[in-house]
Amino acid sequence: MPALTQTFKIPDCIKEGAKFSFCPGCDHGIAVRILAEVLDELGVIKNTISAIGIGCAVTTYDFIDMDSLEAPHGRAVAVATGIKRANPDKVVFTYQGDGDYASIGLAEGVHAALRGEKITSICINNTTYGMTGGQLGPTTMLGQVTTTSPTGRNLEYYGYPIKLAEHIALCDGTAFSARVSLDSVPNIKKAKQAIKKAFEVQLKGLGYGFVEILSGCPTNWRMTPQKAHERVRNEMMETFKVGIYKDITQGINYGK
Ligand code: SF4
Prior knowledge:
Distance between the termini: 58 Å
Largest sheet: 8 strands, mixed
CATH class: Alpha Beta
CATH superfamily: Thiamin diphosphate (ThDP)-binding fold, Pyr/PP domains
Shape: globular
Bound molecules: iron/sulfur cluster
């Protein structure tokens, strides 16, 4: 009998015996896994420091074996900027949710992008504040029901949801900005490629790398994981178009 070849395994940088504390079916688990695969493939884990945002993302440092700081709410990009400027040889990234990055932390992200900080930010967009109970957030879609918008997001009252990948792409110091989705295997593969690219531009010293990841929050959406992925595919991807909005290595420059 031929020897078996292992083709799929737990990433080396995932802590031994780690058990994800995300809700069953949550896409954070997929995002953390592909992030860990990228860190393995780039061979940078021993030289990496992360700043993790407040929210469901916060437990990430419990799973990936890396140096990490928990940032105050919204301040992960500012903390990462300080880490990188003090340790320019380190690989530095933030992992945050949209409530953290797009609301209280928006100024940090935009100004880091404008300054061209050589860090990478991963932002999970699930259109709600997950950890605190599913309230309306800056990425909540028009008409979307949340615990604080029981009749749906009203345009006149709340305005439009923010489109992070496009906004960050418009900042001149951004080297890479993309929006990806975790609703299917092909899209998970694309998401991993985008995360890798967002680290590679940092490693080359080219500027700020950003990836917005469309993700399901089955708990607060009151849906099964399958229905949550259908919502990502049928509703979120209509409002938030996936794609690469900026990649200076490929001459892709949104709006220019
Ligand atoms: S509340 Fe939502 S985003 Fe948070 S872990 Fe549960 S399913 Fe995931």
